[in-house]
Batch of 3 targets.
Target 1
Amino acid sequence: MRIVKMVEEIQKKLQAEIDKFNQVQKDYNKALRTRQILDGQLNENIAVKKELDLLKSEDEVYKLIGPCLIKQYLDEAKQNVSKRMDYISSELSRTEELIATLDKKQDAHRETLEKLQQMFQQAQVKASLAGTKA
């Protein structure tokens, strides 16, 4: 009877660890999607910056705001794009750190799951041996 209780406890721990691991995997996948979006935004802004760098100071620049084109100074446009790129780069760095942290958490959960699975299998074997002796 004691062995059966031990098997049940290990099974509960195993299920709890699986749930934690699944949550970390969801967070990891969400962080990967965020990184993809930020990469796209950064590449788009790099292309805009290259285009702005081709212009002369007397050239006109317009910014699309809703359905309207608003005239903007070239220096202001360059500054806005530069600030946007800085912000996106910092968000990208933060996301990369998060991904690395979640990767380590996944590894730790995998190790714990392996140990619990081994314990569970051993307990099941003991339980079946105890059942055949009785």
Target 2
Amino acid sequence: MRSITWRLTVWYAAILVSILAICGLAAFWSMRYVLFSGAAQEAASAVTAVQKMAASQEGNGRGNYNHIDLDDPELINATGNNMLLVQITSSGGRVLNSSWALKNAALAPGYAGPPVLSRFQGEEVYLAGGRLSGGALVQVARPLTREEDFLKDLARVFMLLVLAGLLLALAGGWVITRAALRPVHSLTRTARQISTSDLRRRISLHGGRDELYVLGETFNQMLDRLERGFRSQQEFVAAASHDLRTPLTVIKSYADLLNRWGKNEPAVVDESVQAITRAAGLMERLVNDLLLLAHMDAGPPLKPAPLDLAELAAETVQEARAVAKDVSVEMNPPSPVPVEADEHYLRRAIWVLVDNAIKYNRPGGKVELVAGEEGGQAFLRVSDTGRGIGQGDLAHIFERFYRADQARGQGKGFGLGLALAKSIVEAHGGKITVQSEPGKGSSFTIMLPQQKNIVG
């Protein structure tokens, strides 16, 4: 019963059998009512017929009613039943006349009224009575043996139908449920066959677009995302390994140089120490960026607080001027732009954009920052006069370890900065966009909600 197929089959069978049982009971009691009502009507009609016979022959029998033939075919035809038990009694209860079917038995004396259910010699009957002239009573009993036999047969038929319906419901429910759940079984088989070395398998979708079709489609979409994520992870590991290999090679080479020649050569020692220090610094930057990306993926522990975006950008400009040699970094006179954000993370995102604008600018170029409000949102735009970004690279520049060929040749970064900036901005409920043309520079824009919708 742990199987959904069996549970659905049992529920289907139980509901169908319940419906059959309810319909059968309703039909049984409706038929019983009709049959018993007819029998009661026959008993009442027999009383009326005897009263008419007695009235038409009054005076011939001198009050003993023996002259009335209670087995007369006219009486039987009048009531339409040959199962009537009829007797006539005096006011004192003495039987004056009775039908042949009563033989030596007698009905319960004294009752004169509409048909009621009673018992006679162990059988259920409808008993009806009426008064005759002279105080005599006529009583008619209509046995219900025929109706009861019919109802017993009807009950057996209904029971057989319910049993047959149960068997058919179990068999049909099993077949229908198996067919309906075939996409689920296909999904299960596909899930079992998927491994990290084969993420290309998908569920074949057929038929109408019902709930199970949507389930299979959703599962395929999930597999697409998993495949993209797994490939991205592989590319991430490969790129990180590639970028770590260079400083590690430098450290190993200079360590060998020190081991062979550096003991008595101060110049070699100085050169080696400086090279190892630079390589260690590169590794430290890469590892810190990777750790920060890991924190962003896990959900950064943001501590949003009210701050001025323009003031934060102005501070970044002052820091950038200290490292920019032949590139000018300017900002228009800032007006307050209130936002609610984590200052540490947001400062890092702004620095990434400013640092890139400086590194990839032309000699004598310019970097300009503009902060303001637009459409109910705060924005910070960082523009440069560098060589720009090609259309083929624009769609990928926010991917991790992605670097345009020109930038990669200069070895100015690891391709993690823009990915970090994008993750930080999106964690604050904002977005980052870029506009660029080769030879005309680039413009990056950060859009942030104003003091609301901060993810933390």
Target 3
Amino acid sequence: MLIIKHGQVAGLLTGREKEIVDLVADAYERHEEGRTVLPHSVFLRFPGRPRDRIIGLPGYLGTSPGDGTPGGEVAGMKWISSFPGNVAGGHERASAAILLNSLETGHPEALIEGSLISARRTAASAALASRLLLDGRRPSGVTLVGTGVINREVLRFLAVVHPHLDSLAVYDTDPERAARFTADHARLLPGARVRHCAGLDEALAAHDLVSFATTAATPHTGIDACPPGTVVLHVSLRDLTVPAVLGAHNIVDDPDHVCREKTSVHLAQEQTGGRGFIHASIGALLKGTAAPVPQDGRPVVFSPFGLGVLDLALARFVRDEARARGIGTSVEGFLPGRTP
């Protein structure tokens, strides 16, 4: 069993943003082609603690011999907790472990600290979607709603995907946290004009690219304040009201996955009785099997549930890099040995 710690994962992923975006795009395309097995995520919740949860994401990311896609097949599971109250105590909100299994024996072969993998695959998927959905337009800047770890990583990847970004608007329900965020992460968008917004509508009106990454449990906002044609990266999934969803062009990672667990998209399905408001999956847009999103001034909302195959793609990358560089701790005797 190979154990790879958080700091080692960070070292292996540092400066690899473009590669990570490519890995995420490849995983989406494989999923669209039916080369994945992806059961629904399992949510473990606790009585009287509606904000706390631990989620299990099992999956298999396959390939075809000689098809030229990067990396081979991989199977495993991410086990990730979200305890928002941790932040007030000075701890990370999320923690995760990813277990990879051998596809020859089924034996577990690598245990990888997964919080950074999870955050960066999420951010890479958002940045990829922004590039795809802006369709060649240069964004006026970016608005971040929520100033936690996820939007930090979103900013990191947006800076790579849109190298000319020079304007940032920030809104958080805690203004001091927003100020700390920009002070700590100004290096991610050097030289940018930074605007701290006093209200959500002010933030939404600031730019035509918006990223929601909050801990909201129920919808609380529309997006009428956004400029025409704004691309909304609805990473936290539960911020937008049903009318906001129905008034937008909606792109998802997988309709069956995202229409669960009271996401805004799920609530829109419950209200309308169908999924006709979903324009396409991001995989279909990448493959060119779905019609392009109309450029008619309506907002475009990307709602990614977070597919476990993205975690597997990055975890496989980390495992392979660690093996090649001799990084990590090999634990012998973890599994029962063969008896004489």
